[in-house]
């Protein structure tokens, strides 16, 4: 089997904690690109406009191993180019990312509400990953798992790329014990504790996930810790990790988590209200370290604000 040569190191540094995009000029396509500009316009012109692509070429935004690329350079199949995309305008999230633990292999962060774990869609620089890379000076930092943007609490990041797979495997194989806290309505008619098992599906482009008939693929343990004034404080222990699982299961029990903009009713899109966070917190992470064999246990110092 022929082995593809490893890509060279990117000649561009990270920008605001975000890696440059790498593109390899295709081989054997037969599309008749004569110049680098021809390829770039066909590849990206439909997304950002031909004029913007040409402007980026003139500005030297596309870079090869030897420096900025001119648009009239001959097309050479297999060549690597790098560039930084234009970042979308983002509303700054006015909360800090805490660091609960840091060593040579991992960083355990305490992510605030409203901050995405990693770049996705319209959230790029305002993400926990980008902030931590910049603030800690760790350009190769990567998350071992993901926490919903609206959920606060613990996220495990890996310092070195070669270690990431071992920690990701812990989450994939359900070898990490996670415990959450939530604030939601109190209903004495709901018998707790209870283990909820159901089938959850989420369609691409649809905001809310839903429970449907079929073989269960999601399991959560729900316990009442205390209640007062019609409001309950709950301990949630997920066994699986489906999208919005805890929010869906609490809503299914008739106990929608306070501050949830999706369950039971999808709130109209508009400016983020930072004074009304989702009352859900990833409180603890516990696992056996894949490298040392030692027990690891971390707890978020954050506190849910409760009903507004």
Structure in a nutshell:
The protein is α+β, with helices and mostly antiparallel strands and 308 residues long. The chain contains 5 helices and 15 strands.
Task: Provide a descriptive summary of the structure in words.
The strands form three sheets. Strands 5, 6, 7, 8, 9, 10, 11, 12, 13, 14 and 15 form an eleven-stranded mixed sheet that branches. A two-stranded antiparallel sheet has the order 1-4. By secondary structure, the chain is of the alpha+beta class. Helices cover 17% and strands 28% of the residues. The protein is elongated, with a radius of gyration of 23 Å. The longest helix is centred in the first third of the chain and has 13 residues, at 36-48. It folds into two domains: 21-83, Structural Genomics Hypothetical 15.5 Kd Protein In mrcA-pckA Intergenic Region, Chain A; 98-299, Pseudouridine synthase, CATH 3.30.2350. The protein starts with 20 loop residues before the first strand and ends in a 9-residue tail after the last strand. The chain has five helices and 15 strands. It comes from Streptomyces sp. R44. This is RNA pseudouridylate synthase. Residues 106-251 form the Pseudouridine synthase RsuA/RluA-like domain. It catalyses: a uridine in RNA = a pseudouridine in RNA.
- Shape by Cα distribution: elongated
In N-to-C order, the SSE pattern is: EHHEEEEEHEEHEEEEEHEE
Integer average pLDDT: 93
The level of helicity is 10-25%
Identify the CATH homologous superfamily of the largest domain: Pseudouridine synthase
Query: What is the architecture of the largest domain at the second tier of CATH?
Result: 2-Layer Sandwich
Strand portion: 25-35%
Q: Please give the largest β-sheet.
A: 11 strands, mixed
Pfam families: PseudoU_synth_2
Protein name: RNA pseudouridylate synthase
GO molecular function, one term: pseudouridine synthase activity
Organism: Streptomyces sp. R44
């Amino acid at each position: 089997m022929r082995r593809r040569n490893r890509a060279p190191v990117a000649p561009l540094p990270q920008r605001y904690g975000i890696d440059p995009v790498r593109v390899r000029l295709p081989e054997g396509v037969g599309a008749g690109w004569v110049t680098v500009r021809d390829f770039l316009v066909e590849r990206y012109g439909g997304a950002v406009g031909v004029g913007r692509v040409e402007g980026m070429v003139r500005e030297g935004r596309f870079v090869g191993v030897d420096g900025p690329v001119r648009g009239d350079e001959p097309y050479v199949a297999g060549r690597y180019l790098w560039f930084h995309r234009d970042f979308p305008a983002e509303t700054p999230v006015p909360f800090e990312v805490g660091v609960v633990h840091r060593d040579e292999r991992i960083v355990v962060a305490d992510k605030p509400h409203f901050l995405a774990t990693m770049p996705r869609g319209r959230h790029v620089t305002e993400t926990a990953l980008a902030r931590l890379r910049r603030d800690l000076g760790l350009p190769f930092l990567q998350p071992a798992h993901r926490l919903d943007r609206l959920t606060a609490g613990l996220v495990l990041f890996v310092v070195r790329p070669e270690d990431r797979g071992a920690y990701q495997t812990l989450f994939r194989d359900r070898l990490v014990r996670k415990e959450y806290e939530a604030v939601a309505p109190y209903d004495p008619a709901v018998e707790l504790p209870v283990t909820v098992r159901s089938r959850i599906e989420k369609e691409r482009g649809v905001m809310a996930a839903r429970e449907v008939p079929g073989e269960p693929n999601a399991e959560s343990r729900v316990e009442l810790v205390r209640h007062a004034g019609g409001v309950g404080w709950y301990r949630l222990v997920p066994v699986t990790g489906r999208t919005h699982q805890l929010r869906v299961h609490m809503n299914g029990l008739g106990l929608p988590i306070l501050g949830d903009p999706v369950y039971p009713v999808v709130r109209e899109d508009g400016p983020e209200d930072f004074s009304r966070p989702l009352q859900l917190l990833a409180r603890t992470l516990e696992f056996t370290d894949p490298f040392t064999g030692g027990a690891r246990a971390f707890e978020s110092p954050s506190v849910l604000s409760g009903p507004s």
